[in-house]
Amino acid sequence: MKVLDHISDDTSGNTKLAIYSSGYMFYSPLFKSTAACMLELKNFPFDTQTCTVEYLSAIEWVGTGIRFDKPTIYIGPRVNPISWQVRDTSITKEERVFHGNGNKSVVIVTFTLRRYTSFYWVTAIIPCILIVLVATGSLWLKEYTTRLSIEVTAMLTVVAIVWSISPSIPLCNEIVWIESFCRTSILIITLICLQSTLSSVISTRTDRISASEKMLFDSLVTLNRYIIDIASCAFLRRMSAKEQSTASSRFSIKDTDKRGASPDSRKMLPIGVDQEKVEDDDDDDASEGLNAYDDIRVTDDDEADISLRLQSRASSDFSIKDADKRGASPDSRKMLPIGVDQEKGEDDDDASEGLNAYAAIRVTDDDEADILLQIRREWKQYACQFDFTCKLITVVALVAVYITYFK
Amino acid sequence: MIDVLLWLYLLHVAVALLHIDCIAQGLKGQECVRWITSYLAAFTGNCGITYSCDPKVLSPPVSVSQGYFPSQAPQDDVTFEYSYFTGVEVNVTSLKVTFELDIYNIIGIDDLSGTISYSGNFVFTWYDKNLAWNESLTPLPIDLSLLIPSSWVWTPGECIIERSVE
What we know:
The complex is a heterodimer. By secondary structure, chain A is α+β, with helices and mostly antiparallel strands. Chain A has helices spanning 118-137, 144-165, 177-203, 211-230, 234-250, 256-259, 275-281, 289-294, 300-317, 342-347, 349-406; strands at 6-8, 16-20, 24-27, 30-36, 48-57, 66-75, 84-98, 102-115, 318-319, 336-337. In chain A, helix 4 runs parallel beside helix 11. Chain B has helices at residues 2-16, 22-25, 29-43; strands spanning 79-82, 89-92, 95-110, 115-127, 145-149, 158-162. In chain B, the strands form two sheets. In chain B, strands 1-2 form a two-stranded antiparallel ribbon. Chain B has a two-stranded antiparallel sheet with strand order 3-4. In chain B, a hairpin with a 4-residue loop joins strand 3 (95-110) and strand 4. The radius of gyration of chain B is 21 Å and the shape is extended. Chains A and B meet through strand 2, strand 3, strand 4, strand 5 and strand 6 of A and strand 3, strand 4, strand 5 and strand 6 of B. Strand 4 (30-36) of chain A pairs antiparallel with strand 4 of chain B.
């Protein structure tokens, strides 16, 4: 039992009492009560509190005593507090045994109040949703640096929102709804950041892919299809189709969609190899959107970059002296080693050896370029697969989270 | 048995009636009201304590309590109640007090302390036949009510308890 603050003007003796000739007494003291209320704050700020306050007759009624009878409650027209809406009030009576203290009348007053939530909608919930959507939308950006900057900014903004509303969140031993919602928002954005970082790292790797990594990334392809099958909602299908069309438009090989591009047939052309010839060699594999999408990130820039690097290396080792004048075909592009005299080379048979040596080196460089390009292309493909998986997971997770929170 | 109880009841009511006779005192209107108030103050033993009775008004002067104790709850009708302690029905004289809670302001719920604050009025009504008077002896309207300090007479007390802690 807990007796709380209960102030009545009667203590001052100023309250008047009306008495009638029949002995009917009318007594109406003012009061101001503060009563304990067991709060259920799990759904804060969408919580509805039911506070039960009990008034007890001061004197037991067995023998000589009083009984509270016919309890009623009247709620004034301007009773609503600032941040609460009074939903219901009720009053009942029961007679209860208090061991060692006799039997007493107990009047039970129940208040049901619902909190106004507009403040929390405006300051926390809607901003959090918008920021998470912006962070999710950044996954569709190509530049990893831009993506990361947006996502980190979004995360810091949500943290700031949490700080701003933390004084309004009641302290209790359980995580309240709004706290959980904000933390989930931070978690989602953190995962998006992590995903962007990983994608960035994967796409810039140049070392050879190991068997386990290959298996892992191949499983991503399967996972993507699986997720699409599971979450067969129109939105995801539309998104997938969009990705497919985007991939087709960016794919460097002509008519990829017509011919179909399989992971195996995805061959990047070495420098100088005829595009049309390769096209003829390609198989007509299934035109999976995801597979086609894989190739989009292997850009011409990368190819040009590698080519340039190799050419500059070749230029530093050899001096090109009028190869064309000597009748060197563009295809063979014979170059003299440094120090070999052009004129002498023309006369001397040794010169042809130098040219042959150069040709051998040139072939080696081409192979190296091929391999390097192939490796980088594979990593980028895997980065794209990873990206796509994460997009799917993020969208599905977002829908699931919001359904869970707002059901 | 019932006849005896009824006779005791009527006797009880008859004894409880105050013999307030304004006409005999030559008092009318507000003078009568003041005189009744003084009389009640004297009757309840509060003359000169919480209310300054005018001895000249009181005729015959009633300066001492006539057996009314403001600290003691008045007795209502005899009823039969079941005793939790003895397990048998006993005669009790419990007083029924109607309880009304008029709430004019709910200040709010304090999340930090887990309390609800509100204010308003209690409305208690009951019968105290010791303070009834004979209307036929007064020239005042029947529905006259007198306002007297609540400390003069017995008033119900109440405690506030918090159910879930119990």
